[in-house]
Write a structure and sequence with these properties.
This protein is 58% helix and 9% strand. It contains 8 helices and 3 strands; from the N terminus they run E-H-H-H-H-H-H-E-E-H-H. It has a single domain, classed as Rhomboid-like (Rhomboid-like fold). With 225 residues, the chain is mainly alpha-helical. It has a 3-stranded antiparallel sheet with strand order 1-2-3.
Length: 225
C-alpha cells in the first residue's frame, strides 16, 4: 500500500517538517558525491551495532562519535527508493503532527524517536556489522504520534488489486495498524539471523513507532480543533 495524502488540513506551515525533508535530501546528495569513499562514509556516520560493544578501554574514546551517529544516521539513506519512500511518509504525516505539537516539540519527538529506533535495533542485533542508516525510525515515531492524535483521519491509499492499482480511503488506525503489524511480523522473522546479513531494520521501525506514541503522552499536544 502506498499512501498518497491524508484528508486533514494543517492550520500552520510545517516549517520543521520541511527543514527535515530538505536536510535528508541534502545529505543524500552528499552521499552521491562520495564515490568510492561511500562505504567508509556510511560506517562513520551510520549506526554499526558492533561498534557499541566495548572491547577495551580505548573504545570509550569512540563513544562521542557513536552517540553522534545516533543522529547523523537518521539523515542518510541506502538509495533513491529508500529516501523517496521515507520522505513521502514524512510529507504526508509530518505536517499534522507538527501542527498539533508545535515546531520545537515536533523536532524533539522526531529526533528522540530516531534515537530510540537505533537503540532498539542495537539491542536486537548487537553483533551486526552492517551500518544502519535512514529516517525510517524517526518517521515511525511520527506515525505512532499520528495514530494517537488522528486515529479516524482518512488516508488516500494506492492499493494493488491483482494487475491493477485502486485508490481507496482507509482510516488512519487501519492503515497504520496494518503497517505496524507488518513490521512486527517481519521483525520476528529476523531474530537469530546471521549478523552480517543486511536488510530492513524492522525493530528500529517498531522502536520508533512505540517511542512516538509515548512521546505524545509526554509532550502533551494542543487540544483538538
Amino acid at each position: 500500500m502506498i499512501p498518497l495524502r491524508d484528508t486533514i488540513p494543517s492550520r500552520r506551515t510545517a516549517w520543521v517538517m520541511r527543514m527535515l525533508l530538505a536536510a535528508n535530501l541534502a545529505a543524500f546528495l552528499v552521499e552521491l558525491r562520495q564515490g568510492h569513499a561511500l562505504e567508509a562514509f556510511l560506517y562513520r556516520f551510520g549506526v554499526v551495532p558492533t561498534h557499541w560493544i566495548v572491547g577495551s578501554a580505548s573504545d570509550f574514546l569512540e563513544w562521542p562519535r557513536l552517540f553522534l551517529s545516533l543522529v547523523t544516521s537518521q539523515f542518510l539513506h541506502g538509495g533513491v527508493l529508500h529516501v523517496a519512500s521515507n520522505m513521502l511518509y514524512l510529507w504526508i504525516f509530518g505536517d499534522n503532527v507538527e501542527d498539533r505539537l508545535g515546531h520545537g516539540r515536533f523536532l524533539l519527538l522526531y529526533l528522540a524517536s530516531g534515537v530510540a529506533a537505533a537503540v532498539s535495533q542495537i539491542l536486537v542485533s548487537p553483533h551486526s556489522s552492517i551500518p544502519m542508516v535512514g529516517a525510517s525510525g524517526a518517521i515511525a515515531g511520527v506515525l505512532g504520534a499520528y495514530l494517537l492524535m488522528f486515529p479516524s483521519a482518512r488516508i488516500i491509499t494506492l492499493v494493488p488489486l491483482g494487475l491493477f492499482w485502486q485508490t481507496v480511503e482507509l482510516r488512519a488506525f487501519l492503515f497504520l495498524g496494518f503497517w505496524f503489524l507488518l513490521q512486527w511480523v517481519q521483525g520476528l522473522t529476523t531474530i537469530g539471523q546471521v549478523a552480517d546479513v543486511g536488510g530492513v531494520a524492522f525493530w528500529a521501525h517498531i522502536g520508533g513507532f512505540v517511542s512516538g506514541m509515548i512521546g505524545v503522552a509526554l509532550l502533551r499536544p494542543r487540544a483538538r480543533w
